[in-house]
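@channel sequence for tomorrow's demo:
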Amino acid sequence: MMRKAVVLYSGGLDSTTCLAIARSEGFEPYAMSFAYGQRHKAELEMARENARTMGAAEHLLVDFDLRKIGGSALTAEIDVPKGGVGNDIPVTYVPARNTIFLSFALGWAEVLGAFDIYIGVNALDYSGYPDCRPEYVAAFETLANLATKVAVEGKGRYRIHTPLIHLTKAEIIRKGLALGVDYGRTHSCYDPTPEGLACGRCDSCRLRLKGFAEAGVEDPVRYVAGDGE
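structure tokens (generated this afternoon):
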């Protein structure tokens, strides 16, 4: 019988690769997505359409509104930067987002009887978010094993899996392709058009395009004319 794992699944490139990896490592994935008021909701359509196709036993969409907090270009009336990836933490950082996501995942894992959680964070080709670092993940794993009934009772130990954390974007893409991931059915753009076209200029698009270029593969998603192609 396959062990269950909760996989944080946005519908983007990294989380889709992460879901494929969880399956390849012998887990039965339970995909969890979040509608948190993000401006790039096109990713959720990908998640809804593809979770089962990617092998998820179940797909749970959790709905809450981080726009009430704001503080990010993804959840407030702040322009998404288009000038390239810098050294500072960008305004696309959503305050405490991964902590919130992992907390929901931990709760569902405890109910499911799962002790494994996958998250597609990356510490190499990324935008500098503090909640994507190995030390953050290690701290949350410690918290998970202190804060849950089953762990305290000694019935199991939680593990946070981060299979992409030390990979470049190109390496992630190559790994996903080897596992049969269709990247044409993923979405990465922070500021897509109403028709769902990727802008090609936000941090997420730039990192994605850089990864495909370095992998020697054409990005199959559609971009605004003149951008990304």
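heads up for whoever presents: The CA atoms of residues 115 and 158 lie 5 Å apart.
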